[in-house]
Design brief:
With 531 residues, this protein is of the alpha/beta class. It has two domains: 9-100 and 165-445, TIM Barrel (Alpha-Beta Barrel), CATH 3.20.20; 460-529, Immunoglobulin-like (Sandwich), CATH 2.60.40.1180. 29% of the residues lie in helices and 17% in strands. It has helices at 28-33, 35-41, 76-88, 107-113, 165-180, 218-230, 248-255, 269-272, 287-300, 316-319, 327-340, 369-380, 385-395, 430-434, 440-453, 455-459; strands at residues 9-12, 45-48, 52-53, 65-69, 92-97, 125-126, 141-144, 147-150, 185-188, 238-242, 264-266, 305-306, 344-348, 461-467, 471-477, 481-488, 494-495, 503-507, 517-518, 523-529. It has an eight-stranded parallel β-sheet, with helices on one face. A five-stranded antiparallel β-sheet has the order 14-15-16-20-18. Helix 11 packs parallel to helix 15 (440-453) and helix 12 (369-380) runs antiparallel to helix 13 (385-395). The mean pLDDT is 96. It binds 6-O-alpha-D-glucopyranosyl-D-fructose and calcium ion. The site of calcium ion (CA) has 6 residues, from loops.
């Protein structure tokens, strides 16, 4: 089966989506209770962040049993029910495949520590650590029983040794287990760093010393080809890789059909445009940088996985829009851009109602391991407490993980939510937006329908037409239609010199006349039929 370009994907972070048993933690039965809502959006695929057994050092991205469900989320019976209930509604499910590392509480690691002959080389052990640093800041090695093991993430996430063929066999077995249950495929976590070519010291860098030894290695391509031909191709599947620090040409190396690796990848390029100097303590959003970055990826990459949010990123309306004065306009503007681009659109839970960053007033309210590790690292770098806290308010991954806002009281749980609910659920919630035809939620629904209706959204070519400091205009074309997408990222109106062609297909501001003046955060799509 080749790439399916028609799909729209909705990401669920199970912990924060819907709690069914009042323990404050989202669960699988909660997701099942909202399947009709998900169906009503018009999406085709659900991507579930990890639901496997895990001690939750990194909220499920530290897996202790790939074939078991985390009891907090429910049972395997619940999971089977979710797969079948989703399928009844024509919704396919993809799961997170986290195979760079496991939890240190996984049986494989426990046996590896004890020197069990089968498992001793399942992980990456050394008598003396090298100088590599981890994604969460600080050193990438920790010690157990006098030996050091590599962890590119937290110390409870030891990296698997992909030089070991038993690791390959066991992971293939895990993939088959889930595909046999009717799973449609996988979102492959940090997949382009899984193969460590050597363990030599790395060139000293501000972030990720050592990366030249494991980033985008030939060994990784070989692993992906094997997973594809030996497992995935035996089923009808869908794969999207999460790939850090890739260029467009590296992206193509992972996704071009003849390569037989992945269907598409998540790139971080557009998530880096607002980061300056160093990753964590200074950000500034300049819209033009976003336009340039998106255009480049549209032009150079075979097929994009388009997203503005996920469970690791702050909320897009707070980051690229204006979540105060122009909350509705800018949320819809971002939606227009997302669906206007060529590629597969991904919506992250809550994005469809314009959920904003969390309301955190103290470090103790953050639960994310990365947030605390970076906060501590900042102290070592001599960054004042106040600045560090402000930065965490802006960039913490917990901004995306606050409970889904179902109604005026939250509606996520009748217990105590595991992470602070944003009090703005009082006015930003699903219930209220269901009842308003012109809500952000109904705007997303409209865009999804338009994408389904017009071939040009899915298959049309891309051409950038205008990129100014605040305004982005591009054209999508096929044999029958031209689409013109116009996005204006500013608090101020702006007159542009342009003669618009075609008829308004959708716009985030109902206007009497669509003239040359773009209002704050205005977005329009024009459509023109070809004669
Ligand atoms: O989230 C980040 C920046 O805030 C990244 O450093 C992130 O950790 C990286 O993109 C990898 O993400 C994935 O793997 C991690 C996990 O913590 C993330 O939630 C996951 O999306 C380790 O499994
Ligand atoms: Ca629960």
């Amino acid at each position: 089966m080749g790439l399916n370009r028609d799909l729209v994907v909705y990401q669920i972070y199970p912990r924060s989506f819907k709690d069914n048993n009042s323990d404050g933690i989202g669960d699988i039965l909660g997701i099942i209770s909202k399947l009709d809502y998900i169906k009503s959006l018009g999406v085709d695929v659900l991507w579930l962040s990890p639901v496997y057994k895990s001690p939750n050092d990194d909220n499920g991205y530290d897996i202790s049993d790939y074939k078991a469900i985390n009891p907090e989320f429910g049972s395997m019976k619940d999971m089977d029910k979710l797969i079948s209930e989703a399928s009844l509604r024509g919704i396919k499910i993809i799961m997170d495949l986290v195979i760079n590392h496991t939890s240190d509480e996984h049986e494989w690691f426990k046996k590896s520590v004890l020197g069990d002959p089968k498992y001793k080389d399942y992980y990456i052990w050394k008598d003396k650590p090298n100088n590599w640093t981890s994604f969460f800041g600080g050193k990438a090695w920790d010690q157990v029983n006098g030996k050091y093991y590599l962890h590119l993430f937290s110390k409870k996430q030891p990296d698997l040794n992909w030089h070991n063929s038993d690791v390959m066999n066991d992971i293939q077995d895990v993939m088959k287990f889930w595909l046999d249950k009717g799973i449609y495929g996988f979102r492959c976590d940090v997949i382009n760093i899984i193969f460590k070519t050597s363990l030599e010291n790395g060139k000293k860098r501000f972030v990720l010393t050592g990366k030249e030894h494991y980033h985008q290695q030939e060994g990784m391509h070989e692993i992906l080809k094997r997973l594809r031909t030996e497992v995935l191709d035996k089923y009808n599947t869908f794969t999207v890789g999460e790939t850090v620090m890739v260029t467009p040409s590296q992206a193509n190396d992972l996704i071009l059909p003849f390569r037989n690796e992945l269907d598409m990848i998540f790139s971080f390029a557009h998530m880096e445009i607002d980061q300056i100097n160093n990753k964590w303590f200074k950000t500034k959003f300049k819209p033009k940088k976003l336009f340039d970055c998106l255009s480049r990826w549209q032009e150079e990459v075979y097929w994009n996985a388009n997203y503005f949010e996920n469970h690791d990123q702050p909320r897009s309306v707070s980051r690229f829009g204006n979540d105060v004065e122009y909350h509705i306009e800018s949320a819809k503007l971002l939606a227009t851009l997302l669906f206007g681009l060529k590629g597969t659109p991904y919506i992250y839970q809550g994005q469809e109602i314009g959920m904003t960053n969390g309301y955190f007033v103290d470090m103790s309210e953050f639960k994310d391991t990365e947030t605390h590790q970076i906060y501590k690292l900042g102290k070592k770098l001599g960054i004042p407490k106040k600045i560090r806290f402000k930065m965490m308010q802006k960039t913490s991954r917990d901004n995306a993980r606050t409970p889904m806002q179902w109604n005026h009281n939250g509606g996520f749980t009748s217990g105590n939510p595991w992470l602070k609910q944003n009090p703005n659920c009082a006015h930003i919630n699903v219930l209220e937006q269901e009842s308003k035809p012109d809500s952000i939620l109904n705007y997303y629904r409209k865009l999804i329908q338009l994408r389904k209706k017009y071939h040009v959204f899915r298959y049309g070519s891309f051409e950038a037409i205008l990129k100014t400091k605040t305004t982005f205009m591009f054209k999508r074309s096929n044999d029958t239609h031209d689409l013109y997408v116009i996005c204006h990222f500013s608090n101020k109106s702006k007159k542009i010199n342009h003669v618009f062609e075609g008829d308004i297909l959708i716009s985030n501001l109902p206007k009497k006349v669509y003239d040359n003046v773009l209002s704050p955060y205005e977005a329009r799509i024009y459509i023109k039929e070809k004669k």
